[in-house]
Amino acid sequence: MQRTNKIKAFYNRMSIKNKIALIYSLVFILIIFLVSCFIVVNSIVYYRTSSEKEIDEVLDNIEQYIKDGGDISNEAIKEQVQNPYIEVRVNLMRSDMPVPNRNNRPSEKPSEKPGENFPFEGAHDNIESGSGMRRTPTRDPSDRFNNGPFGGDPNVRMDKIDGDSYLSSSRHVEINGEKYNIRAFRLYNHEVQMINKMSLLFIIENIIAVIIAFVIGRAISSKMLEPVHQVADAAIKISEENFNQRIDEPEADDEIKELVRAFNDMLERLQISFERQNQFMSDVSHELKTPLSVIKGYTGMLSRWGKDDPEILDESIESITSETEHMTMLINRLLFWARNDVNSSITISELCIEELLDEIKKEAEVMELPAQINISGAQSTRISGDYHLIKQLIWIFVENAVKYSGEKSCVIDFETFEDNGRALLKIRDNGIGIKKEDINNIFERFYRSDKSRNKEIKGFGLGLSIAKWIMDHHNGKISVDSTFGEGTEFLLDFPALK
């Protein structure tokens, strides 16, 4: 377990380049190893099968030769064998001798001495070799292949006798009452050497292949990970003063290209966000600077001589009060954004748009708001939403309609209806309208159309941005259509509550 943890820790400390090279090498060597094993095993099977076939053919020929009454002397038998790698011995067996087991191994290599017996393990004890000594064969190192699952005929065995490798097989035949034991020895040195050389060659090739695969894997992984390094370098270089940094997309349409594209898109969003933040801070500073300057000017004038002049004193108090209200409204709007940018949780309940419109109309009458409010359309359009936020949303359009009515008598028309499962609220006013080039920007924070002309109109350019935020958090949509000098129409689109 501890060793496994050490290996895992070592692997985790490796760079991605080395990990890819290692995995590439392991996969490559596994393929080479399997191919090598396949070639070696097929070679073993091929050599063994070919040799067994040669032995069987020789045994068949000798058996037929004996049946035809041929001489069984070593010289005569040798003349019948055409294969220079095979030697055959035929022994006439006594009637009391047990039949040798075909699976027993010969105890010594074939001899050129005529008439010499070749004892088998398990044969009768009084059977001796020409030398009078029994020699036990040694196991050939290739036995695990040739005598194992890769061997063919189980009656053919492989042994190393006096330093030479032999495939041997025996056959017992009975002809005209006589018992004969036919034994064939196939010299197998060349095949064993070829298999051993092939195995050694494949081992060396595998070692070299691992080294080459690792080097090539590192080179390939370095090339593949080059865009990743570019992403890392770009991330290091990025700062508040350098959001223009971008990474060139690679030509290959792969995952790396997707990563680079995603990173560039993120930089684009960060740059836009940072620019908006700078613009936001600039607008806040501008909006606060004017009322603070006015308040500072009047307080300075009062401290010097204005408090002794009742007219100047009243004017100063009125201006300071007005600017204070102006700053209070701005701070409240900023606090709204601060709270909802951090925590956008809202309280959802079932709402009736017509009931909210009636409440707003009554409140406007109590406040003596200079506007005529008309409500028409459906009787009960229901949505799911936050009561206070939806009410604030509608008030924003009412206040804007009054603020930008110009010299006209302000008229606000509310119309509700449903369409394809959507609850729609249309808000029309007869104000000064919005220029076409400004429509796409009116929902940005602190944006005010035609700033030079609207200096006398109080406002901060935050109302419609808040309205957009409220609509987005109610899964709604907001669209606008305006004719400059004639009026504006907003369409609020909510999911209808069934």
The helix/strand order is HHHEHEEEHHHHEHEEHEEHHEE
According to DSSP, the number of beta strands is 11
The secondary-structure class comes to: alpha+beta
User: First CA to last CA: what distance?
Assistant: 61 Å
**Helix fraction bin:** 40-55%
State the domain count: 3
Tell me, briefly, the overall form. Answer: elongated
The overall pLDDT, averaged over residues, is 77
The radius of gyration over CA amounts to: 51 Å
Q: Report the sheet-strand fraction.
A: 15-25%
| Number of H- or I-type helical stretches | 12
Protein described:
This protein is of the alpha+beta class. It folds into 3 domains: 180 residues; 85 residues, Signal transduction histidine kinase, dimerisation/phosphotransfer (DHp) domain (Helix Hairpins, Orthogonal Bundle); 152 residues, Heat Shock Protein 90 (2-Layer Sandwich). Helix content is 50%, strand content 17%. The chain is built from 12 helices and 11 strands. It has a 5-stranded mixed β-sheet with strand order 6-8-9-11-10. A 4-stranded antiparallel β-sheet has the order 1-4-3-2. The radius of gyration is 51 Å and the shape is elongated.
